[in-house]
Design goal:
By secondary structure, the protein is an all-alpha fold. It folds into two domains: 1-90, no CATH class; 110-207. The protein has helices at 5-12, 21-35, 39-51, 55-67, 75-86, 91-103, 111-122, 128-143, 151-162, 167-181, 186-201. Helix 4 (55-67) runs antiparallel to helix 5 and helix 8 packs antiparallel against helix 9 (151-162). The longest helix has 16 residues, at 128-143. It starts with a helix and ends in a 6-residue tail after the last helix. Mean pLDDT is 89; it is low at 13-18.
Length: 207
């Protein structure tokens, strides 16, 4: 349930001014070009920024390789750019890298690595990207993939993710949460809700 690149870019355009004016202008122009479907222009603007270490440009370029927009689809190349950005703590790249490990795209399938990257993105805040990572982490606890199966922790992360989800994610997460509660006791649900409250109150420290 990753948010689309266009969804995230529409938010990012408003934040690029924090990066320094020249870089911000290029990133904003690249984002606008991508949203408009001018992938060749977007790639031309992004590549020099990505090669010089800009994390957001690296993530955007990785997403282009992931989707095959403006460049040949290449999961290994997508993974390379995602990783460079993820290691600079870019939450969107961390979410996408987690997805690649969960699905075995461009990397060997590895649920523990998927959980690692989902968690890094999940604890960064309350954006749409963070919500998607929180939801993904919750589903890993349901399935026992990369972590011991734990309905309480699953409920906690899904509950946190729902609070900042978009309408589609809200509906899907709500359905999963309702299904999950059928397998939980009232005490377990109350415990999960309390954990979610403490987690957000502590700004995700110790979650």
């Amino acid at each position: 349930m990753n948010p689309s690149l266009k969804q995230v870019l529409l938010v990012c355009v408003c934040l690029f001014a924090l990066n320094g004016q020249a870089i911000a202008d290029s990133l904003s122009d690249a984002a606008n070009a991508y949203v408009a479907g001018n992938y060749a222009k977007a790639e031309k603007l992004l590549r020099p920024l990505a090669e010089h270490g800009d994390a957001k440009a690296q993530w955007m370029l990785g997403h282009m390789y992931d989707d095959g927009n403006g460049v040949p689809q290449n999961y290994k190349e997508a993974e390379k750019w995602y990783r460079l950005a993820a290691e600079q703590n870019d939450d969107s790249a961390q979410l996408n890298l987690g997805t690649m490990y969960e699905n075995g795209k461009g990397v060997p399938q590895d649920y523990k690595e998927a959980v690692k990257w989902y968690r890094l993105a999940a604890v960064q805040g309350n954006s749409l990207t963070n919500s998607a990572a929180q939801w993904a982490l919750g589903t890993m606890y349901i399935k026992g993939k990369g972590v011991p199966q734990d309905y309480v922790l699953s409920h906690m992360w899904l509950n946190i993710g729902i609070s900042n989800a978009d309408s589609k994610m809200l509906q899907e997460s709500g359905e999963i949460l309702n299904s999950l509660e059928k397998f939980m006791t009232a005490n377990q649900i109350a415990e999960a809700q309390e954990l979610a409250r403490k987690c957000t109150a502590n700004k995700f420290k110790g979650c």
